[in-house]
Each structure stands twice: as structure tokens, then as C-alpha cells.
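FAQ

Q: What does a record look like?
A: Structure on top, sequence underneath. For example:
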């Protein structure tokens, strides 16, 4: 896919006219469309300067969005990893708690009626 079609595709996806996309507007919708176009162009192999020319923005803007995207990906990875690790720790703690409860029940049963404990375990 060549660069103009990438930009036009992003404009269609974000429901933004090319005139607004290349204009001076700074609405959230336009910023998201520009960011998506910058990421798509970078993914397609365009360099920072070429991307800046294609989206008619300063090179520093392109660098900012690309770094921001990398930060977002890293932050999302860490959040997902932390959530998965947390849920695994919670699962292990729950199992340990159940094992402790089972031990306590067995100890109590042993004290009350050792014969009943043997029947339960067989």
C-alpha cells in the first residue's frame, strides 16, 4: 500500500475529511486520526522525515507520537502482565487458604473422632 492510500484509509476509518486531516484543527478526533496515520506509515516502513512530509506535520510531532505509541504499548504490556501475575498470586493464595482450612478441619475431626477421620479419608 502506498502512502496516499494509507492516509486516505485512515481518514475514512476515523471519518475525517482529508482537508481537516491536513488542516490546522486540533480536535481529539483529528489528533487520533493523525496519530493512527503516523503509526500506519511507520509500520509500512516510512522514516520519520518521510512520514512528517506525508502528514504535513513537523518531524518533532511524528517523533512525539511514535514515542507515545511505544510508551502506550509498554504501559499496556506491564498492566496486563501485572494483572495476570496478580490473579495468579490470588489463585495460589486461595489454594493455600483452602489447604489450611482442610488441615484445620482434619485436625478437629481427628480430635473429635479418629475413626470417622479414617472413614472420610478412605
Amino acid at each position: 500500500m502506498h502512502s496516499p492510500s494509507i492516509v486516505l484509509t485512515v481518514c475514512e476509518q476515523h471519518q475525517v475529511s482529508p482537508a481537516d486531516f491536513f488542516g490546522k484543527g486540533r480536535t481529539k478526533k483529528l489528533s487520533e486520526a493523525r496519530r493512527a496515520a503516523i503509526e500506519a506509515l511507520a509500520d509500512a516502513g516510512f522514516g520519520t522525515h518521510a512520514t512528517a512530509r506525508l502528514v504535513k506535520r513537523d518531524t518533532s510531532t511524528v517523533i512525539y507520537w511514535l514515542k507515545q505509541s511505544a510508551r502506550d504499548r509498554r504501559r499496556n504490556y506491564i498492566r496486563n502482565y501485572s494483572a495476570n501475575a496478580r490473579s495468579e498470586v490470588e489463585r495460589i493464595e486461595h489454594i493455600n487458604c483452602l489447604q489450611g482450612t482442610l488441615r484445620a478441619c482434619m485436625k478437629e475431626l481427628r480430635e473429635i473422632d479418629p475413626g470417622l477421620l479414617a472413614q472420610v479419608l478412605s
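Q: Is there anything notable about this one?
A: The longest helix spans residues 59-112.
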